């Protein structure tokens, strides 16, 4: 009798362990969300700073999204005007790239200094988040001078700081809009 009771107890614990592992596995296999990023609109419109800005921006985005395993970054090599976004263009790009969301960014440079003495080039990184149907979900901006208060550093570093801050701002606003289970973006 004792052997049967021991065998039943061990079998029960094994079955409970197997079912809990299956339950965890099913919950973690959420759908991977694809986020389409457009090239940022750069202000002032100087051709020489667009490529380094794009490189720094997408480097920061890929570094930031590497922490989220259920998100995948897609890149569109086109620049959409930040202030006049066409919803149909967003829909077309999301359909063609099978994306769930689209982000339209803008990087605005400004100089900090006194008179003719310039201390640093700061940036304001702005982002608009759209869903696949072209509806604006949220928008945010991050001013590296006001929020970070660092004067020394390269423009590339400020773009990375601003991009990380803008992505955190979007995630923060998404948590307010959506329930916590969907806010993983």
TrEMBL record:
It comes from the Bacteria. Keywords: Signal. Residues 1-23 form the signal peptide. The keyword Signal applies. This is Pyruvate decarboxylase. It comes from Chryseobacterium piperi.
């Amino acid at each position: 009798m004792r052997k049967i009771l021991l065998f039943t107890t061990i079998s029960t614990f094994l079955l409970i362990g197997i079912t809990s592992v299956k339950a965890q596995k099913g919950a973690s296999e959420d759908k991977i969300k694809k986020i389409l990023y457009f090239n940022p609109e750069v202000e002032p419109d100087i051709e020489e700073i667009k490529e380094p800005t794009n490189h720094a921006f997408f480097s920061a985005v890929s570094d930031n999204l590497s922490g989220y395993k259920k998100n995948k970054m897609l890149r569109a090599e086109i620049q959409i005007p930040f202030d006049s976004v066409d919803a149909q263009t967003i829909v077309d790009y999301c359909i063609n790239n099978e994306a769930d969301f689209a982000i339209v960014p803008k990087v605005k440079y400004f100089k900090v200094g006194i008179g003719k003495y310039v201390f640093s080039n700061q940036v304001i990184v702005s982002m608009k988040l759209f869903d696949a149907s072209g509806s604006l979900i949220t928008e945010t901006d991050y001013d590296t001078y006001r929020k970070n208060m660092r004067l020394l550093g390269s423009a590339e570093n400020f773009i990375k700081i601003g991009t990380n801050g803008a992505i955190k701002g979007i995630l923060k606003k998404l948590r307010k809009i959506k329930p916590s289970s969907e806010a993983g973006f």
